[in-house]
Each structure stands twice: as C-alpha cells, then as structure tokens.
Amino acid sequence: MNGSLSFWKRLDDNAERWLLLIFYGMIVATIVVEVVRRFVLSYSSIWGEEIARYAFIYLAWVGASAAVKDRAHIRIDVLLHYLSERGKALVYLFGDFCMLAVALLALYTGIESLEISMKFGSVTHGLRISLAWFLLAVPLGFSLMIYRLGQSIYRDFNTLRRGEPVYQGQRLFD
C-alpha cells in the first residue's frame, strides 16, 4: 500500500515534468533528424515538421498545467504586497475561480472540436493520421489545468481557514 501511495505522490508531483521532457525530447530528436536529412542527405520530409509542431502544441498545454500547479504564470503582484495573508488568499482564490471558469469553457469547446474532427475523419497532411490525436492536446491540457486548479483552490481554502501564509508560487525574477 505504501509503495502504491509513493507512486501516486511521485506522479502527482512530477507528471507534467515527465510529459514535458518527453515532448521536448521528441521535438529535439525530430529536428536533429530533419536537419541531418536536409543538409547531409539533401532530402526532407513533411512528417518531421508535423511531429515537431504537434509535439510543441502538447508541450504548450502540458506546460500551462505545470505553470498552474506551481503558480508560475506571469502575473503582476505588486498590489499583493500591500494585502494581508487573508487578502492574498482571497485574491488567489478569485483568480483560480476565474481561471477555472475559462478552463471549463475551453475544455468544452476543445471537446467539441475533437468530436467534429472525429465525426468527419480529418487527417493530418503529412502523417495522414487522425487529426483527433493532435486536437486532443487542448482537452488534455485543460483537464490537467482543472485538476491543478482544484488542488490550488483546496490548498488556498485550507490556508485561509488556518490563517497561514498563502502559497505564492514560483517567481520569474527575485
């Protein structure tokens, strides 16, 4: 049981990091292969560009979820320095609820476009595989964001209730 708990804890702590590493690796490997093919073999393919592009799309949406988890999105927080811990927690909760509303709307529209693609059998130009695999990046990213926002809201409510300092996340510059 304890090993299982440890696995889920590690997954919760690092899921986005592992996915980001996979997508970065795909992008780098694909671009290296395509550069060698183009300049050494004088031949290039359309699939390499598509793989890199779609891996980048997944990278962006999974990265957005990681930023929500670490509260690392770019923000202007100069006013937060003048608020009490309770005021900061309320501002963060308000922001999380606003982001949650946007994420739910984006998840809905992302699923809708995914369903349309599946209904009409859209395929990519170079790879000739279902476009749905790549449109899935948006619902996946927003689902992860909703999960991380739920964790953030839960954490902030508990901090507010206990009167502790609110988690302010990662800073871009100190």
Chain-wise SSE layout:
Blueprint: H1 2-39, H2 46-70, H3 85-120, H4 132-135, H5 137-162
Order of helices and strands: HHHHH
Report helical residue fraction.
Answer: over 70%
Shape: elongated
Mean pLDDT: 88
- Estimated radius of gyration: 20 Å
* Helix/sheet category: mainly alpha
**Helix count, per DSSP?**
5
Q: Low-confidence segments, ≥5 residues, pLDDT <50?
A: none
Strand content: under 5%
Q: Alpha-carbon distance between the termini?
A: 41 Å
Q: Major sheet, described briefly?
A: none
- Strand count: 0
What does this protein structure show overall?
This protein is mostly helical. The protein contains 5 helices and no strands. It has helices at residues 2-39, 46-70, 85-120, 132-135, 137-162. Helix 1 (2-39) runs antiparallel to helix 2 (46-70), helix 2 runs parallel beside helix 5 and helix 3 (85-120) packs antiparallel against helix 5. The chain is elongated and about 65 Å long. The termini are far apart.
In short:
The protein has 174 residues and is mostly helical. It is built from five helices and no strands.
Keywords:
single chain, mainly alpha
